[in-house]
Give the backbone structure.
Amino acid sequence: MGVVNVTPDSFSDGGKWLDAPTAIQHGIDLVAEGADLVDVGGESTRPGAARIDGDEELRRVIPVIEGLVAEGITVSVDTMRASTAQQALDAGAVLINDVSGGRADSEMLGLAARTHAPIVLMHWREHSAVMQNHTHYDDLVDDIVRELMGQLNHAVLAGVDSGRIILDPGLGFSKTGAQNWTVLAHLDAFTELRHPLLVAASRKRFLGELLSDPSTGSGHAEIRPTDGRDDATAAITTLAAQAGAWCVRVHEPAASADAVRVVARLAQEAQ
Ligand code: PMM
């Protein structure tokens, strides 16, 4: 899954694809690089981000979705709003990627049930403005799995077809850098839930921290900028694919697409 953020403020590509023709071309390029689908979002979820209004979100994403669908590209919409998801589906998107896992908008799960659109349910505790104040867990992996199962049960009770639900542990959402690593070390706890698993580590801050440069002489290590995190992202793609993930959401698909092919080829040998 390639990422097109039509936002001025996303942490790694904010402002780069704000006008529709540029965003559409970027989506086309992501597919040429190996993405099977393109995720279009209009609202940044970076830590501390404030929400935008629904009309602005629509204005950003709908023309881009229409343009990509016209090119024959499979599109998902990254939104927490049912009204945006509805219009995105009308415009030809085929997957709802709701980082709140149905918790931010009480209409979202009903929409997924009614339209039979597959939906990504991500582990989510709170909106981005405050999510990093909610990183306490008694037992990190157990708690995330339990909370995600709660979101899953909620969706099924709302009528969403269980076979159309994709799960995501939500790296960086109400999780510290160290907690992201623990989650990645325990992806089996999520694949065991027997739903397709989406992993979205691409360019996130915990990779910048890992790759920080201690030689800046400033006294503290300089965090690696976002555009220097793609090789580490591809390494995580390899590990996620090996662990049985269904999808990785990335900004630079080329290396990740190759990594997936390597893992698939090796899996043939194991059969
Ligand atoms: N992370 C971001 C945005 N959308 N969707 C899913 N399913 N999982 C994620 O972890 C996720 C997401 C934030 O990253 P971005 O600003 O690079 O899009």
